[in-house]
């Protein structure tokens, strides 16, 4: 969801954790906006200070656990800020082979799952179920 674009936080990317340090979340005293702050590596290997407004795309959701009755908070995507490019694909694959494969070859569903982009959950989520 947030990535490192040459030393600057950027929405629509992911995995900035491998090229960051001194990460904090702060709240602006005047606007009450929540910011992700940190230092990110640029393309030349230099550390750059960066800041991104989390409230641009995220909201805090409060919910009650039905089992314990305790109240929890979680970050969620603010649906009012989504545009068509921000939406993810959900791919559901159900392999109806009942676990019986022919020989040593994978089924067509297994081959399809192998081709799908699984490395970036901000773009696409995969669910694969066998033995139906």
Automatic annotation (TrEMBL):
Cross-referenced Pfam families: CVNH, T6SS_Tle1-like_cat
Cyanovirin-N domain: residues covered: 1-59
InterPro entries per the UniProt record, alphabetical: Cyanovirin-N, Cyanovirin-N_sf, Tle1-like_cat
Domain T6SS Phospholipase effector Tle1-like catalytic, residue spans: 88-129
SUPFAM superfamilies listed in its UniProt record: Cyanovirin-N
Listed name of the protein: DUF2235 domain-containing protein
Record lineage: Eukaryota, Fungi, Dikarya, Basidiomycota, Agaricomycotina
């Amino acid at each position: 969801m947030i990535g490192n674009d040459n030393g600057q936080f950027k929405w629509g990317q992911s995995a900035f954790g491998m090229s960051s340090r001194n990460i904090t979340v702060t709240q602006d005293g005047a606007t009450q906006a929540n910011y992700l702050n940190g230092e990110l590596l640029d393309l030349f290997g230099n550390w750059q200070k960066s800041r991104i407004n989390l409230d641009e795309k995220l909201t805090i959701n409060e919910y009650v656990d039905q089992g314990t009755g305790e109240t929890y908070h979680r970050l969620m995507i603010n649906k009012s800020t989504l545009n068509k490019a921000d939406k993810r694909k959900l791919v559901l694959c159900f392999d109806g082979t009942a676990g019986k494969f022919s020989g040593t070859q994978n089924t067509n569903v297994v081959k399809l799952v192998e081709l799908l982009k699984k490395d970036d959950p901000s773009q696409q989520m995969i669910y694969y179920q066998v033995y139906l």
